Amino acid sequence: MFDYKLLAALAAVVEQAGFERAAQVLGLSQSAVSQRIKLLEARAGQPVLVRATPPTPTETGRRLLNHVQQVRLLERDLHSYVPGLDAGGRPERLRIALNADSLATWWAAALGEFCASHSVLLELLVEDQDVGLKRMRAGDVAACVCASAQPIGGARAVLLGAMRYRALASPAFLARHFPQGVSSAQLTQAPAIVFGPDDLLQHRYLAALGVEGGFQHHLCPSSEGFVQMVKAGLGWGLLPEMQVQDELRRGELLELLAQQPIDVPLYWHHWRTGGELLAELTRHLARSTALISTVK
């Protein structure tokens, strides 16, 4: 039989990225949290945390965190049938990983009504669409939006649609770097803007054009900042079409290569045993008119 006080301590340390903040959330001393982790490890017979900054779960720790995530959601279902068991009365907080471009575009409109009607709070972890699934593998989130179609063990994946990206730049950038017009081979000769080290979208775009090898680029881990850097002429970049419709209409951004977009599929991954809340959220996302109208 699990001692859920010990599992709660593990979840808090990972979610709060440290023992001190975990202690504050749990209303315990830092020493008490540390003792609970040590007791959990003694009972498990192996480490559940790597004592780094921030602490990270071991493989055993990840399995325990997966269990904690699913138990929390199942407990919510039980509280709806037996209200007297719910001593806290606080809304559920769902930890979800998603890519920055989704957060900057369709996500809020798609989730607003659902969160209000179901008394759900969100804790969003921003990850590139190519790597968001690692948060579920780590037991860190209950669901994620990412580009991978293959679910991990114990989870399901639902295709939401695809975001269309276009290679864009400011008129001044085009005049400075491509005075004779743009060809695919020239794109590596001008600075690009990339979201972060895990963002391989530009690499795939260039490869689809037959351009191989590295290219010079800025790193900008902000969806809104990315747009501003492209508009300011610091580089060219792949931007979600739906995010920059006004800039395209006003001529503030121009497409480098006409009719050469790249579509990124978006999948919703969630635990199969995540309870009715995750099931309802999945159904809501699948039928949401806000999402359908913005993800093409």
Structure characterization notes:
- The chain has a domain at 163-262: 3-Layer(aba) Sandwich (D-Maltodextrin-Binding Protein, domain 2).
- Helix content is 44%, strand content 20%.
- It contains 13 helices and eleven strands.
- Strands 3, 4, 5, 6, 9, 10 and 11 form a seven-stranded mixed β-sheet that branches.
- The model has no long low-confidence stretch (mean pLDDT 87).
- The CATH class designation of the domain at 163-262 is Alpha Beta
What distance separates the N and C termini? 47 Å
Structural class: alpha/beta
Low-confidence stretches: none
**CATH level 4 superfamily of the domain at 163-262:** Periplasmic binding protein-like II
- Count the strands? 11
Mean pLDDT across all amino acids: 87
> For the CA atoms, what is the radius of gyration?
22 Å
The dominant shape is elongated
CATH architecture of the domain at 163-262: 3-Layer(aba) Sandwich
Short description:
44% of the residues lie in helices and 20% in strands.
Question: What attributes does this structure have?
Answer:
44% helix, 13 helices, 296 residues, two-stranded antiparallel sheet, 7-stranded mixed beta sheet, D-Maltodextrin-Binding Protein, domain 2, 11 strands
